[in-house]
Specification:
oxidoreductase, NAD(P)-bd_dom_sf, 7-stranded parallel sheet, 248 residues, C-factor, SDR_fam
Length: 248
């Protein structure tokens, strides 16, 4: 892939993706990395200073009316080649809670960041994704080298595997994102745009906590391997970091 846009790159999995991508033998020509506050994204800035193909976009994804800033920045760099991959990584979580502790504010915030923002950003960047797909339709098959939307989700969004209850805000927002991913895959199939939702595993990040069994590098290495093998048969799928298909 020549270009990729990743949201939520100030830390955690987003930052890990940027780190691993620039270390590839043939890294993307353009890596667009969003963050809410550049002044706090010290490690991301250090990477960008060493790699000219990293472009930091400062934006709060809650402000969907400002998505034109993202579109314009990407357009200026990719020109007529379009955008190959949108990786909706940014998200928020909450601590485990039972029904008696659910707060309306948490439900709304989780749903907006984890579901509404990825959908609206995909809509905003769709023209650029379509251009990339059209330019690379000689490949015929879907792939990240053509055009793809990858939505970072969670196994907690699986209704089938919910055997613990709780996590209302996070579970509901990720289940909704999974549903949106499925719809996108159907709506964009004729455009040759691959769409999947991806569970990164339980990873030691600020969101995953210190008890998580997997480190960021292991998760990202697996994710990049999965991304390379994605094809038509995977569009509309709910996949784990190692390529395993998960139940809805």
């Amino acid at each position: 892939m020549k270009s990729i846009l990743i949201t939520g790159c100030n830390r955690g999995l987003g930052l890990g993706l940027v780190k691993h991508l620039i270390q590839l033998p043939k890294p993307p020509e353009n890596i667009f990395a969003t963050c809410r506050d550049v002044s706090k994204a010290t490690k991301l800035k250090e990477l960008a200073e060493r790699s000219r193909n990293i472009h930091i976009i400062e934006i709060d994804l809650v402000n969907t009316c400002n998505y034109t800033k993202i579109v314009n920045t990407v357009s200026e760099k990719v020109g007529s080649e379009g955008l190959n991959v949108l990786f909706n990584n940014a998200g928020i979580s909450q601590k485990f809670s039972r029904i008696g502790m659910v707060k309306e504010e948490n439900l709304i915030n989780n749903f907006f960041i984890n579901t509404v923002a990825p959908i609206m950003l995909a809509k905003a960047l769709l023209p650029l994704l379509k251009i990339a797909s059209k330019n690379n339709e000689i490949e015929k098959n879907m792939s990240i080298n053509r055009a793809a939307i990858i939505n970072m989700t969670s196994i907690l969004g699986s209704i089938t595997q919910n055997d613990q209850g709780g996590f209302y805000s996070y579970r509901c927002s990720k289940a909704a994102l999974n549903a949106a991913t499925k719809s996108m895959s159907i709506d964009l199939k004729n455009d040759g745009i691959l769409v999947i939702c991806l569970h990164p595993g339980w990873v030691r990040t600020d969101m995953g906590g210190n008890n998580a069994p997997m480190d960021i590098d292991t998760s990202i290495s697996n994710i990049l391997n999965v991304m390379k093998m994605l094809s038509d048969k995977h569009t509309g799928s709910f996949l784990q970091y190692d390529g395993t298909t998960l139940p809805w």
